[in-house]
Design a protein that fits this description.
Length: about 475
């Protein structure tokens, strides 16, 4: 383990994407040797069959107490120049530019007992996004850390305990991976998690639109843009998640820490000052026979030192500030809330469809995720079995994002949020189309082409549209 950590933590930050690709191929070899070695005492990796191909660089044991895997995800994006009547401090840049992001992860886990598991994940985020990830509510690369000053320093992304409390003797099979180690779980059970985690790993998930490493890339496709989930600027928080699972439904609740300031890296540990509650009901109705149907209904309530758009505008119009400033207020705790409807349907063996609708009250500032008060998306994916590439996927989605009137007025008068601020605003909904083709090359090697078209970036009719093509290289160890 120490050897692996030295390899992943001491990659020189100045190397380019190709150099990093070579380094991570070497890391894949180390991970495979380590994983096979640890598995010797507790069961060999399951052999691949033609119907069950190995989708990682090395197979992972289904019986070992240990779990070790890793990923490297490199996204290269570019956009041509586009027209804009004006620009502000947080505008998406009008001149042609390119950017490369790189997320490297090492996942480790240990199954202490059949019902108790611990996980430790390490991550390094390098590179950046177009325009420093500013100027859009639905930004084009989910892998980008929203604070470019943090740099490529490695960090612990997740460190958590999973406890399963059985409520029935009957069990069902479960898929093993970096977040789940038990291969069989009780049909009725309570699951508890505590530690450092990503709320969006467990809430508002979707088999078609959640994973920026193999699916879509846009922030408001892989996550519901109006879901202002508790997170620091890297996307993680400290929290507790409690889940009840039954045969065709589940309910989960969480309590998480909010950042001290909007998009901040430091969390507020005083729960009287800041916290978030999430409530989600997950249903799997039998409305299409044996085809998978999933419906998730989510609501969230944020408590934090959030500004109020209407108050910031009033202070500006009264001459108290030189421009509307959402952070110019005494420290206090305000409340923001919203909800999300998330649907996924297996249409046929190779076709899946999904949709999300999200809404938040929009009076309080966007605080932890992105500047979206309402969102609607619909899309799907198609497996490539018809052209004898069954592990390839092609996907397409349409998203429309909006902000409420108080938020609009704040930006129109020159206000700046942590992502948006053109110096003015001729409001229009931010409409996004995204499509991708993800190709499976061999084992854990994937490559993809992605194309996004953003109309009214930052909700501004005076700017855009913007076309963003992307290339993605993904390694799964």
């Amino acid at each position: 383990m120490r050897t692996i950590r030295r390899v992943i933590f001491n990659i020189p930050p100045g190397e380019g994407p190709l150099d990093r690709l070579i380094v991570f191929l070497g890391l894949a070899l180390l991970l495979g040797i380590a994983n096979n070695g640890w598995a010797q005492g507790a069961g060999e990796p399951d052999p691949a069959t033609p119907d069950d191909p190995v989708l990682t660089m090395f197979p992972h044991s289904q019986t070992s107490r240990w779990w070790v895997s890793g990923q490297a995800n490199i996204i290269l994006q570019w956009h041509p120049s586009f027209d804009a009547k004006y620009s502000g401090p947080n505008s998406f840049k009008t001149h042609s530019e390119q950017a490369t992001s790189n997320i490297s992860s090492l996942y480790t886990g240990l199954q202490l007992t059949s019902t108790t598991e611990i996980f430790m994940h390490f991550e390094m985020a390098d590179g950046g996004g177009l325009s420093d990830a500013l100027g859009m509510g639905g930004f084009t690369d989910l892998d980008v850390v929203r604070n470019p000053t943090l740099g490529p320093t490695p960090y612990i992304s997740r460190g958590m305990i999973r406890q399963i409390i059985p409520l029935s003797d009957e069990t069902v099979e479960a898929e093993r991976g970096p977040w789940y180690l038990a291969t069989k779980v009780p049909v009725r059970r309570i699951e508890l998690r505590f530690g450092k985690l990503g709320m969006n790993d467990f809430f508002d998930t979707n088999d078609v639109g959640t994973d920026s490493h193999l699916q879509f890339m846009n922030w408001t496709v892989d996550d519901n843009g109006a879901y202002d989930y508790a997170a620091d600027t890297r996307g993680y928080t400290m929290g507790l998640i409690a889940e009840y699972h039954d045969r065709n439904w589940a309910f989960r609740f969480s309590e998480g820490l909010m950042p001290k300031v909007a998009n901040g890296i430091d969390l507020q540990w005083n729960l009287r000052k800041a916290r978030e509650e999430n409530y989600e009901l997950e249903l799997h109705p039998s409305i299409a026979g044996k085809r998978n149907t999933a419906l998730r209904l989510l609501t969230f309530v944020n408590h934090a030192n959030m500004g109020v758009y209407r108050d910031a505008v009033a202070d500006y119009l009264a001459g108290k500030t030189t421009r509307p400033t959402i952070t110019d207020h005494p420290e206090r705790t305000t409340v923001k809330y919203g909800f999300d409807v998330n649907v996924m349907q297996q249409v046929s063996k190779n076709v899946r469809a999904f949709s999300r609708f999200g809404w938040s009250e929009g009076q309080h500032e966007s605080y932890a995720y992105t500047e979206v008060d309402q969102t609607l998306q619909a899309g799907g994916d198609l497996a490539g079995e018809r052209w004898k590439r069954k592990l390839d996927k092609v996907g397409a989605v349409v998203v429309t994002n909006a902000i409420k009137k108080d938020h609009q007025e704040y930006l129109r008068l020159g206000g700046v949020g942590f992502l948006l601020g053109d110096g003015g605003l001729n409001y229009g909904r931010e409409n996004i189309f995204e499509t991708y083709y993800n190709a499976h090359v061999w084992r854990g090697i994937y490559t993809a082409f992605d194309l996004q078209h953003v109309n009214h970036p930052g909700y501004n009719r005076d700017r855009g549209p913007v076309l963003v093509p992307s290339l993605r290289f993904h390694l799964d160890f």
